[in-house]
Amino acid sequence: MSDVPTSASFPLQQHLGFVIERGETSATASLVLDDRHLNPNGVAHGAISFTLMDTAMGAAVMSVVPEGCFCATIEIHTRFHRAAMGGSLQAEATVLTAGKRVVHLQARTHDADGHLIASATGSFAVIRPG
Fold it and tell me: What are phi and psi of 83, to 5 degrees?
């Protein structure tokens, strides 16, 4: 896998402190949890898992679309399985089908112990230049 957008080119990545790696038809987004990621109960806010999966899915889409194209989320169905209590999180996304206009994916977020924190399926629009 290769690193994709630098922190300087992706402000949300810089703010939350996650790392993105892209493979062929897949991608990961990972981070080490700290206070800015926690909800009032002291566990990772669900939006963190969602953001990691959305970002990993977008990076996976970019691994299968033609040069010059970009993508946008159409919809994501998210299921939360357990609380993330600290440590690190990693979301891995995999392309299921890639059409000319829409790419369908699945993603899973795990903690450092391998526990499934959240899972998602999503569809992304392929946007061509011009």
Answer: -75, 145
